[in-house]
Amino acid sequence: MIDNIKELITEVEAFKAQTKEEVEAFRIKYLGKKGLLNAFFAEFKNVANDQKKEFGQTINTLKKTAEDKVNTLKAELESKEEVKGVSGDLSRPGEPLQIGARHPISIVKNQIIDIFSSIGFNVSEGPEIEDDWHNFTALNLPEYHPARDMQDTFFIQTNPDILLRTHTSSVQVRYMENNKPPIRTISPGRVYRNEAISARSHCFFHQVEGLYIDKDVSFADLKQTLQYFTTEMFGKSKIRLRPSYFPFTEPSAEIDVYWGLETETDYKITKGTGWLEIGGCGMVDPNVLENCKIDATEYSGFAFGVGIDRIAMLLYQIDDIRLLSENDVRFLEQFKSAL
Ligand code: PHE
């Protein structure tokens, strides 16, 4: 009988199956209640004492071989089914997939980048922790210049030369130091000012500043470029440049877009004037060019800066700037359908 069992072991080892049903039939034949193994175990008591040990060992080997066979065949067939995509419980409810949304600041920033890329501007970036030279001195704001007060600055306490940049004009200084004209670059990024936090202002916000330097760049080029931008961004082509002052540009201006007075919201956001201020601009001061080793007798340029948060608030009618940095999912979820 032992030889008989040994033959079965070889048979089990050689067994192959294509379907789960074949595996199940095999399992029942060997390991089922009325299967061969149980029959052999029942036989055990009739085996002569001197053969009991070998007999016992042999049926145990058969049992183990059959069990292993069933397990490997089942695993093989299941993994084949998974590949075909029919495994698992098809009636189970689907996993709720959380769809993310882009932050409104990113949406607006990307739109601005797209618009300026289409007219040949590249994107430049720089550090948020700046030194005095790049944020102020190179921009024609020497030490003790009163205009430094225009921008409430966060200084690093132990080193007054290091500060959190108050505008991304600092990136433009870096760009001019490292690149030769013609220069066409926009610098998006986060900036910091020591202001009380309210619905209208925050101690950090986002800007995109633009810089164009070449031979014979004129104020008319600046106006055309801004007009192109407002038309693409807001669908509004009427702009007005109001005389203003920035230490790094001369002449300087505030940029206003004519928003119109068609709806109640138009009245509210333009305070009844129809005009909306979106940023500052001007012709780069020759001192700034010289500070950045660009020959001001040969080259001229313009620069401008617009606030991303302000534009996002305008486009999405967000009435509290703090919502932009609180990361409240209920707020952010509303931008799922945006670009
Ligand atoms: N840097 C200015 C600001 O942060 C904006 C600006 C940029 C104005 C370029 C003129 C030219 O307020």
TrEMBL record:
Among HAMAP family, the record links this protein to:
Phe_tRNA_synth_alpha1
GO function terms (MF aspect): ATP binding; magnesium ion binding; phenylalanine-tRNA ligase activity; tRNA binding
Q: Could you tell me which CDD domains the record lists for this protein?
A: PheRS_alpha_core
Q: Which gene encodes it?
A: pheS
Its UniProt entry gives the catalysed reaction(s) as: tRNA(Phe) + L-phenylalanine + ATP = L-phenylalanyl-tRNA(Phe) + AMP + diphosphate + H(+)
Location(s) in or outside the cell? Cytoplasm
Please identify the protein, giving its name as recorded.
Phenylalanine--tRNA ligase alpha subunit
Cite the Pfam families for this sequence.
Answer: Phe_tRNA-synt_N, tRNA-synt_2d
Instruction: List the EC numbers from the record.
Output: 6.1.1.20
The entry's free-text remark on the cofactor is: Binds 2 magnesium ions per tetramer.
Family to which the UniProt record says this protein belongs: Belongs to the class-II aminoacyl-tRNA synthetase family. Phe-tRNA synthetase alpha subunit type 1 subfamily.
**GO cellular component: a single term:** cytoplasm
Assembly, in brief, is: Tetramer of two alpha and two beta subunits.
Could you provide one GO biological process annotation from this protein's UniProt record? phenylalanyl-tRNA aminoacylation
Q: Which residue intervals define the domain Aminoacyl-transfer RNA synthetases class-II family profile in the entry?
A: 108-334
Q: Where does Mg(2+) bind?
A: 250
Query: What InterPro entries does UniProt report for this protein, alphabetically?
Result: aa-tRNA-synth_II, aa-tRNA-synth_II/BPL/LPL, Phe-tRNA-synth_IIc_asu, Phe-tRNA_ligase_II_N, Phe_tRNA_ligase_alpha1_bac, Phenylalanyl-tRNA_Synthase, tRNA-bd_arm
Q: Which UniProt keywords apply?
A: Aminoacyl-tRNA synthetase, ATP-binding, Cytoplasm, Ligase, Magnesium, Metal-binding, Nucleotide-binding, Protein biosynthesis
Q: Per the annotation, which location comes first and is thus the protein's main one?
A: cytoplasm
Co-factor(s): Mg(2+)
Q: What is the top-level taxon of the source organism? A: Bacteria
